[in-house]
Amino acid sequence: MAADEKAQAEGEQVEGKVKKVVGGAVGNESMKAEGYAEESKGDLRVAKEKARGAVRPK
């Protein structure tokens, strides 16, 4: 996984977790749902890069 892709994926995961927690704390369901979506986007990016790395010849 390239360093910039990894950083971007981790950033999305962290930002999503923060939005989830803050949205739940203040009762903002829209923000909470956005947090879940953003965290999932980061998870998918990590999975994509892991799959790409597994397919590359070594």
Protein topology:
Elements (H helix, E strand, L loop, with lengths): L2 H24 L2 H27 L3
The outline comes out as elongated
Percent in strands: under 5%
Radius of gyration in whole Å, from Cα? Answer: 14 Å
Please tally the helical runs, counting DSSP H or I stretches of 4 or more residues: 2
Question: How many β strands by DSSP?
Answer: 0
- Please trace the helix and strand order, writing H or E for each element: HH
Please, what is the average pLDDT? 89
Helix content, binned percent = over 70%
- Which stretches of 5+ consecutive residues score pLDDT under 50? none
Q: Which sheet architecture does the biggest sheet show?
A: none
SSE class: mainly alpha
Terminal residue distance? 14 Å
Q: Which terms summarize this structure?
A:
about 60 residues; mainly alpha; 2 helices; about 0% strand; elongated
Walk me through what this model shows.
It is elongated and about 50 Å long. Helix 1 (3-26) packs antiparallel against helix 2. The chain has helices spanning 3-26, 29-55. 88% of the residues lie in helices and 0% in strands. The protein has 58 residues and is mainly α. The protein has 2 helices and no strands.
